[in-house]
# Entry
Amino acid sequence: MVKGNKKFRLSLMKNVAKMMTVVITMVTTLTISPIHGHALSIITDTLVSATAEVSNDNTIVTVSFNTSAIPTTSLEDLKSNIQIERSDSDTFVDLSVDNGNNEIGMTPEGALVITLDTALTGTTNAISVAAGSVMNEESVPSDADITISDISAHDITPPAFVGAVSDDGNDVYLNFDENFSINASLDSDEDQINTFLKSKLSVATDGEHFVSVTAHQGDIYQNNSRQIYLNYDNDIKVILGTNTIIKIASGTLKDVAGNLNEEMNLQVSPPVIQSTAISSDNHDVTITFNEDVVGNTESLENYIYLVRGSNSIWKHLVEGDTVKIESGKLKIHFVEALSGKTNQISINGGVLKDSDGNVQNDSRLTALIEANVGGIDPAPADTTQPTYLYSYFSNSFQDLNVVFDEDIHNATADEASFLQNVQWYNSNNWYYSLPSDATVTFSGPIATIHFAAPLTGYQYYFYFYPNHFKDTAGNVIGNYVNTNWFYPQNTGFDLDDGYFSQDGRWMSLEFDSNTNLVDQTLIDGISHLNEQITLSTDGGVTYTALDAQDVVTVQGDKINIFFQNPKQQGSIKVKVAANVVSDLYDTVRNSAVDEEVAYNTPDISGYVLSNAVSEFVFADNPVWRSHVKEVVVYDSSIGTDRELTSSEYTLSEGKLTISAGVFLEDHYYEISVDADGYSSKYFEGRAYKSSEIFYITTPVVSVDNGITAKINLFNNAYDNGSIGNQTVLFELFDGTTPVSIVAANLKVNTGTYSANFNVSDAATNPNYTVKVFVVSKYSSDSTNLGLNLATVKTQLEINQAMSNVGNDNHNDD
# Structure
């Protein structure tokens, strides 16, 4: 042990204590030298390092040096030699520059105390004390700057809301500025934590009237360490309109330091477009939102599009177009002036946010923007990128031709670069560049890729990445260009199906081209396709041309023939010459057609009745009717067929009548009408009592503007194969005297029906009443209304009947 006087021992103990509480960057040095064999000389520590301690409120920083320190001159002089660097800065500033109210002091132990007017934040604060501004007890000043770095402020603030991201009011993500946990009981499991969180959240879509999120089913949970997720089931939106506020009760969120949130009212509605304005010269558009917006991404130009024309053509912004946010509004300058009345601006989701950080994650479209007539640019610049039209192969599938709407050029550095970044499918594999031995040439609006050998695989598809093509003005196509599918082995497409429609009024020939057909018989814009089609009504023995009044059109993948005189035959053979129609790009044409088209039978509608004669109507076809040989009824509840006898049905002009007693109530039937030389005609339905086909409510009568009667009607035969024709009758009575009838003969389904009677004394005559009927027929013969098809029910009874729709309450279908 070093021996010495009492003063020395106390000083030594003091230094040891300091070493235990602060970080010392220099080892204390004691030099013990005997002088003439009598006393010891002590050299004390020099000032070379320090540590800092921050008060609980982050406003006081205590700097403890490696030895006791005192100002070299005065506190005022010392203050002028102290600098501070805060976490959000990368520069030291004088203490007085940081804030004029900052103060300093010294403790009796020789520590520096800095009192800040603005509390510290963050973890990278620093204090620097200039060299020579403090000295030790032996009056030896520091010989270098003493800097304390990475001074951390205490975390004394709870998590702060930094914005919501939502998808059209759903899938709401609440974001916070630091990690947190849900302040549920320590032993809570995940379900209990989520239940606790839900109990602490409420939403006011009007900013005022809050409803707990527990009022709706949905998913509400902490999504990650800084986020809460909310979404309601049943397509109910969490955010509605511009003033939705989500309230988080106090004590719900806890950060790592244990800080709990106060009650938080979070404005979560994202910005909503309110209006657009266009400059007089049509070059500038200003979009105003319900609140100020700021950018949420770099290069706004990449996420904003011009949509124009009745066909809603999308256009990327081009070189020279600019986008900026000024005074909270989005301003777009177009090099090419807008024109016309149908301009719109589309803004990608996630591009803008409000001052609260709220982001709409879905794209938004402005209202139509009408350009000013007087502001048309007399010499507009070409700023429109080329439009890809279609592709086709030529030269026996050795040349791929990619066609655009204007002259096209290579937008890449050279031919080798063009061949890269082209994804293409070759029969069974995807490749990610074209073969190096392929070449590309540009001629007018066509880019031709020439392969070293013809393509012979099963199918091909090409996918050019952005920035491959440009026009003569330098406008580059900034999106993908993808071709149609190609099938080298497909040398012609065949007829896939042929059928009649509308009781023989037209015939459709559907091909398997999977594309829109093109008429290749046009000469000077006039189609000669009808000359390439012939028909046979004798099974192919003889063929005749179409009537001069028959009309032939190409629509989609079909050739349609509209007959001047409907065809009565059950089947017709049709011939179509080869190569008269092609796909859209004329890469393949049709094979010759010689096929029979059948099923030319009339459409039959009506109701299957268990308690009365069943009448089924059709557009009369006397040829078909004269060839009917039998009517077969299949009872699906039993699973058997039976042929009706001649006494059980009659076939007259436009009507098939089946006797009462053939059908059993609630059984489901399939009825086949078989005619010689015709396809069997099938129709089906469940058997009901005639009065149970429809349910109607008692009429509700009002006397505004005459007399209006209204009923709710339910088609109880909801699973009937076809809806029959019937008449809804509204009859007005004055007491017991009939006054007027309004009748609608139509195919009736579930819904609301009404009639109006134009009487002048509707408001003063209390004797008016209205009765409503649903009958199977209505004509000038008022004594024969056919069958009553409806029963009056209460609205509750109708609601209950409607609720059973779709339920399997029957034994057989």
